[in-house]
Amino acid sequence: MRKARMYPFERNRYFYGKLLTVRDFESEQKYLNDKRRLLNRLLFGSGVVAGMQVVAVDDKTVTVEMGLAIDYSGREVVIPSPVTLKLSMIEGFTNNEYKKNVYLYVAYDEKGREPVHSVGNSSIRGEEVSEYNRVLESYRLFVKEEAPAATSFEHVRLLEDVAVLYQDAHVRVSQRMPKYVNPDDVVDVTLVVEKTLQTARVAVSFDYESDGFDPVGGDGRHVEFLEPGDGQDTEYRLTYSVKVKDRPDTVATLSLPPQSVTLTIGDQRVPIDHAAVHKVDIISQPVMERILKTWYERSLDQAAEGGVRSGTLSGENRIASAWIHLYDRAGRARSLRRVRAERLPASAAVPCGPGRRASPFFRRVERLRPRIRREAEA
């Protein structure tokens, strides 16, 4: 469900003799909060600002370091001190055999503090009533087993065209390429294969069709990916190049017809029932100028709700602070390692004003490989 708009703004007007009620004080807080949050959202973007690194403590325990993030509603999410949790105790965790990838999220949350006796309510209701005297602006951590779609991130939609070829609970195959290109450019197309570690070996091959692109390299239009024999990763990327034709101000297409795609998982061939199609604008102006133009021409609604997309988490919850991958390697124990966090590169940051760049939209924690036992945590 979409969050109600924070604007237009309406503030209290005080005058001598005004009868102040709870509504007046609540609207005072709402006015200041909504203005600050709208500016947070539009000026700084959303994502982890500082801290929130994820550290493996032991086999099935993680610590999330103190830190600050801003969600897609512009609200500040603060973890004031490190928190250590058993994975099985985190909301949404159902992976009792520790065989699936899970993704850790942090969301803004409010909690009542200091319960006190409410004199006004008790006189009306005829019974003793307690109300909270304070509201603690807090957070909650939860996990999901579904990987966030690349297009759920605003900066990805601005910079890249993403086409999903195949997706199920264990495997996702997609392609990514630039959204805008210049004539005669040689651009990279990236095939991304994501899978759980327990999934059998994945192989993909296809012959792509294109209008506005010429193949580069000796393989022509044929592309082939085969997962390495050791199969110790959950994400693989294969890049091939195409050359843009000299056709400015047109739309180029690159597609993977289902009849040309061979996807094999283990010994089983998986049927593909739809084509993955890219539509890319061939432009004369520099690509960065076009990206800036698109960014500045967004409507206020688009800018304020940039992270809210159908099929994704709502703007109220949409911060992925870490991606935690849990592995069971044939039941053998593996050592824990500190998670490596990466900020969004400055070159990929979305400009938010002349000479300025937005804060990183998210910090991706690449991989956590804990030692896992087959027994479910009690």
**Helix proportion:** 10-25%
Overall pLDDT score: 78
Q: What's the helix count?
A: 5
Q: What share of the residues does DSSP label as strand, in percent?
A: 35-45%
Biggest sheet statistics:
5 strands, antiparallel
Tell how many strands the DSSP assignment holds. 26
Number of domains: 2
Net shape: flat
Overall radius of gyration: 25 Å
Strand order of the largest sheet: 9-10-12-17-15
| Secondary structural class | mainly beta
| Uncertain parts | 308-378
Terminal residue distance: 35 Å
Describe the structure.
With 378 residues, the protein is mainly β. 13% of the residues lie in helices and 39% in strands. It has 5 helices and 26 strands. Strands 9-10-12-17-15 form a 5-stranded antiparallel beta sheet. A 4-stranded mixed beta sheet has the order 11-21-18-14. Mean pLDDT is 78; it is low at 308-378.
Summarize the entry for a quick read.
With 378 residues, this protein is mainly β.
Keywords:
Immunoglobulin-like; 2 domains; five-stranded antiparallel beta sheet; disordered C terminus; 378 residues; four-stranded mixed beta sheet; mainly beta
What are the SSEs and their pairings?
Elements: H1 22-44, E1 47-51, E2 54-58, E3 61-64, E4 67-70, E5 76-79, E6 83-86, E7 101-117, H2 119-125, E8 130-144, H3 154-159, E9 160-167, E10 171-178, E11 180-181, E12 186-195, E13 202-207, E14 209-211, E15 213-215, E16 222-226, E17 235-244, E18 250-256, E19 262-265, E20 268-270, E21 276-282, H4 287-296, H5 300-304, E22 322-325, E23 341-342, E24 351-353, E25 356-357, E26 364-365
Parallel strand pairs: 11-21
Antiparallel strand pairs: 1-4, 2-3, 3-6, 4-5, 7-8, 7-22, 9-10, 10-12, 12-17, 13-16, 13-19, 14-18, 15-17, 18-21, 19-20, 23-26, 24-25
